[in-house]
């Protein structure tokens, strides 16, 4: 994560973040490394604990400085906490799947006066590229993916890599330091998905999100 984002997540706190997903899941990168880099603890769900106990465990050990969840986690946690209205985190980051208005409401209910964010980003851009503050969306509308994080660029382009006008369908391209080098052992797919950035510095590339 960019340093400004890391600082915003931890906000000088010492309560760190919980870790309850498989290390194979890319979201764990920021859930685990952000607290450690910032000098805060990582609270690991004990081995053998069932996810049906997740909400209660979070309520007992929170509130955390920040917490990352998927919409599926929100559905799981909803109704599990035995202290309704208790904030589980000062900053709650939701990602990994499409966030609906229902999920946005669930997320806001878990942060009290804190912040709930919709985080978007494919694995190929190192997990996160865009964020949107939940609560700013229009009622009943789809939840936007927000603006690029510091150090990230995002363009909606046509087939000739030209920016499309507002309201016109295009493809999202993401650039910046987090863009991966490509797919190991798959040069053809790498050339297709990772393209030169016509708006960046020499050698910069964009990832075609599809």
TrEMBL record:
Q: Which residues form the signal peptide?
A: none
Q: By its UniProt entry, which InterPro entries does this protein fall under?
A: AMP-dep_synth/lig_dom
Cellular component terms (Gene Ontology): cytosol
Record-linked Pfam families? AMP-binding
Q: Which GO terms describe its molecular function?
A: phosphopantetheine binding
Q: What residues does the AMP-dependent synthetase/ligase domain cover?
A: 20-184
Source organism superkingdom = Bacteria
Q: Name one GO biological process term.
A: secondary metabolite biosynthetic process
Q: What is this protein called?
A: NRPS A domain protein
